[in-house]
Structures are given as C-alpha cells and as structure tokens.
Amino acid sequence: MISQMKALEDENRRLKKMYAEMSIESGGGKVGHGSGGIVQPRAE
Q1: 30 φ/ψ angles, rounded to the nearest 5 degrees
Q2: What local confidence, expressed as pLDDT, does residue 12 receive?
Q3: Residues 2, 42, 36, 28: what is their CA dihedral angle, to the nearest 10 degrees?
Q4: How far apart are CA 27 and CA 23, in angstroms?
Q5: Between the CA of residue 31 and those of 8, 16, 21, what are the distances in Å?
Q6: What does the alpha-carbon distance between residue 11 and residue 16 come to, in Å, rounded to a whole number?
Q7: Distance between CA atoms of residues 5 and 37, nearest Å
Q8: How many helices (H) and strands (E) does the chain have?
Q9: What is the mean pLDDT of each successive set of 10 residues along the chain, which is 44 residues long?
Q10: How far apart are CA 19 and CA 30, in angstroms?
Q11: Cβ-Cβ contacts under 8 Å for 30 (sequence gap 6 or more)
C-alpha cells in the first residue's frame, strides 16, 4: 500500500514537471482546474 502511494506521488511529481515545462514552452499561463494541482488516486 505504501509503495503504491510512493509510486503515485512520484508519477504525480513527474507529470507536474512535464506540464510546467510544456506550459513554459507554449507560453501559456496557468490553466485553472478544480483539483488545485493534486491528482487523486483512482479507486480500484
């Protein structure tokens, strides 16, 4: 369970970095979204 949480946190960090880099490259500003930038794990 903890290892899954760690994996999700790592993926979330990686995706946030990728999104930030893409936003900078495209010259776009911050896009509003309801989650506040936190990705919640899916219930499986």
Answers
A1: -70, 130
A2: 97
A3: 110
A4: 6
A5: 22, 12, 13
A6: 9
A7: 17
A8: 1, 0
A9: 94 95 75 57 65
A10: 10
A11: 23
Q: Is the pTM of this model over 0.85?
A: no
Two tokens, residue 39: 């990705």
Contact status, residue 29 vs residue 23, Cβ threshold 8 Å: yes
Reduced to 3 states (helix: H, G, I; strand: E, B; else coil), residue 20 is helix
Asked if residues 19 and 38 have their Cβ atoms less than 8 Å apart, the reply is no
Q: Which helix (H) or strand (E) holds 28?
A: none
d(CA 29, CA 40): 23
